[in-house]
Amino acid sequence: MTEGSNYDYLFKVVLIGDSGVGKSYVSLAFLSRFTRNEFNLESKSTIGVEFATRSINVDGKTVKAQIWDTAGQERYRAITSAYYRGAVGALLVYDIAKHATYVNVTRWLKELRDHADSNIVIMLVGNKSDLKHLRAVPTDEAKAFSTENGLSFIETSALDASNVEGAFQTILTDIYRIVSAKSLESSSTNIEPPTQGISVTAPEPADKGGKCC
Amino acid sequence: MRERSIRSNRKHKFIECLSNRDISINELRKLAWAGIPPELRPMAWQVLLGYLPLASESRTSTLARKRDEYQSMVEATFARGKEGLDQPIWHQIEIDVPRTRPGVQLWMFETTQRCLERILYVWAIRHPASGYVQGINDLVTPFFQVFMSAYIDTDPESFDPGLLPKSVVDAIEADSFWCLSRLLDGIQDNYIFAQPGIQRSVRRMQELVGRIDAPLAAHLESEHVEFMQFAFRWMNCLLMREISVQNTIRMWDTYLAEGTDAFSQFHLYVCCAFLVKWSDKLKQMDFQGVIMFLQSLPTQDWGDHDIEMLLSEAFLLNSIWHNAQSHFGGK
């Protein structure tokens, strides 16, 4: 509508992670939709999914990010997994001041393996980096975990918007690289914006070989 | 002038109905469908929900008993302090209480927040199949606000219940708890594992819209808009994220008049009417436009009249399609 269809690529990115880690604020900070003052106000919890979009420039191309901000509570899992369809990127957010939200990252990864495209690009995001005095998850530990699991990693503070732009830049650039490399491989076939589900061919033997790293 | 006399006449009928030694529930329902006068709403809601007995002689004793019962549940539940609580449930409630109607003074006060916490937690542990699910916090707010209004003369949204005597706050809290419980009894399927109630309602809604407004349904399909993407929230929070609390309160007058299963059955038709209302606009929009529009609908200025229009449209749809549903339900 407003932004029209003036983009070269459309990438669907899901925001996932435990309830209360600040997913919606990360999304808002990226959209620059709030100022520091408004931050004092708590926002309502996300129910189901909230949708947002913003375009950025990568290698001279306009990449439009379609962001699906999901509800974090366990009970919603059965529904939210439907939102992973067609997603090429995932920001998996935890709260650096709440260790339990970091422990649950493993469960979220499994969730993605079970429901998302196996090629999905995942970035681990330690949010609330402004809460230095309350830090419960060491940066090095999260970094090592990310390397082990083939994820990129960044710490952000949606409060002062630090690194939020960087997080999206990085993941969108990573996706762009993969997609444009693929398009070279497969020569003439056009890169279509991800729309519908991943077509499943014949049943594969044993597991799907969760290739997320 | 004429409108005022109709209103006072209606109010008169309400008072008459509620003053009967044995309230006629059918008469009360008939009256309540078109909206309840604010002063009579606390009592009318409690009667419609079956919380307050129809027979006047047992009302005082029933209320006292239910309030005591709730009080002892609270005491037993919190007897061992926070360590004795189910941590995942408590944690979720603690996160959500400050996120309940943020910006509205009433919900920022300490007293209100502690009441809300207890109501949600006690309800959650007594309903282990669902526990606390986000959005249930929203559903407490109309009850609390309406019941508090019986004790004050000012706008409840800016009133600090901490200023009321403790016994009054306890009564408001207990009444809100029991009435919430009754409302949720009718829609528990919405909140249990995999939320089958919501899945069913969203599916039915899609089916119905296909019949009520085929061009809109076709447009949404061609834009790859899935009903689950927007209607999930409409079911989970009973449209409370889409309309104001004032609107919700007026809507619940009618829902309660319809009976407690209205929160799943009649609500479905309200949602259909609500979507179809924006049909002309939606048909001009692409995927992104549709989703963005539906997640922040222009209902800020809605008053009773708009809600009443919506309710009558839903009533009409209900009477046309409800029986017909069995014809296509199986296909």
TrEMBL record, chain A:
<feature type="region of interest" description="Disordered">
    <location>
        <begin position="189"/>
        <end position="213"/>
    </location>
</feature>
<keyword id="KW-0547">Nucleotide-binding</keyword>
<comment type="similarity">
    <text>Belongs to the small GTPase superfamily. Rab family.</text>
</comment>
<feature type="compositionally biased region" description="Polar residues">
    <location>
        <begin position="189"/>
        <end position="199"/>
    </location>
</feature>
<dbReference type="InterPro" id="IPR001806">
    <property type="entry name" value="Small_GTPase"/>
</dbReference>
<dbReference type="InterPro" id="IPR027417">
    <property type="entry name" value="P-loop_NTPase"/>
</dbReference>
<dbReference type="InterPro" id="IPR050209">
    <property type="entry name" value="Rab_GTPases_membrane_traffic"/>
</dbReference>
<dbReference type="InterPro" id="IPR005225">
    <property type="entry name" value="Small_GTP-bd"/>
</dbReference>
<dbReference type="GO" id="GO:0031410">
    <property type="term" value="C:cytoplasmic vesicle"/>
</dbReference>
<dbReference type="GO" id="GO:0003924">
    <property type="term" value="F:GTPase activity"/>
</dbReference>
<keyword id="KW-0472">Membrane</keyword>
<keyword id="KW-0636">Prenylation</keyword>
<dbReference type="GO" id="GO:0005525">
    <property type="term" value="F:GTP binding"/>
</dbReference>
<dbReference type="Pfam" id="PF00071">
    <property type="entry name" value="Ras"/>
</dbReference>
<keyword id="KW-0342">GTP-binding</keyword>
<protein>
    <submittedName>
        <fullName>GTPase</fullName>
    </submittedName>
</protein>
<keyword id="KW-0449">Lipoprotein</keyword>
<dbReference type="GO" id="GO:0012505">
    <property type="term" value="C:endomembrane system"/>
</dbReference>
UniProtKB/TrEMBL annotation, chain B:
<dbReference type="InterPro" id="IPR000195">
    <property type="entry name" value="Rab-GAP-TBC_dom"/>
</dbReference>
<dbReference type="Pfam" id="PF00566">
    <property type="entry name" value="RabGAP-TBC"/>
</dbReference>
<dbReference type="InterPro" id="IPR035969">
    <property type="entry name" value="Rab-GAP_TBC_sf"/>
</dbReference>
<dbReference type="GO" id="GO:0005096">
    <property type="term" value="F:GTPase activator activity"/>
</dbReference>
<protein>
    <submittedName>
        <fullName>RabGAP/TBC</fullName>
    </submittedName>
</protein>
<feature type="domain" description="Rab-GAP TBC">
    <location>
        <begin position="35"/>
        <end position="259"/>
    </location>
</feature>
<dbReference type="GO" id="GO:0005794">
    <property type="term" value="C:Golgi apparatus"/>
</dbReference>
